[in-house]
What does this fold into?
Amino acid sequence: MSEEKSTVARLEEEGDIAADYLEGLLDIADLDGDIEIGVENDRASLVIEGGELAHLVGRDGEVLDAIQELTRLAVQTSTGERSRLMLDIDGFRADKKSSLTKLAEETAEEVKASGKPIKLTPMNAFERKIVHDTIQKIGLTSESEGEDPDRCVVVMPA
It folds into this structure.
């Protein structure tokens, strides 16, 4: 129990450090945004909402990924430990998770009906994890194939 508590405490500390860093970035850019801190899937989780934030997401989340990486580095510099924190801005990742879950469910149905594996389009690690987790919950198997940036998920029959 104390190990679990210390993990949660460590992740909450990561969240606080990350939030301070992100507040500094928002101040520098003269942007308004509310930062929510949480713990999800054994990771610190931060969400920035409000204001004009779409340009902080960028095309396909590229700017968001960069800000997340900078925030992880700021946390690592402060704690000396590698951070796996997840950052969402303006609901981009939440929307992406919802659409990828739907894609995985539809693909699983297709695989079940045809009995043949289906290879999805290339995805980043965050996207692949959502698909793998959804496929696993459905009871099928999946694996990643290829090299980044062309790495993709293949969904296989049971």
Notes: The chain has two domains: 2-90, 94-156. The longest strand covers residues 34-40.
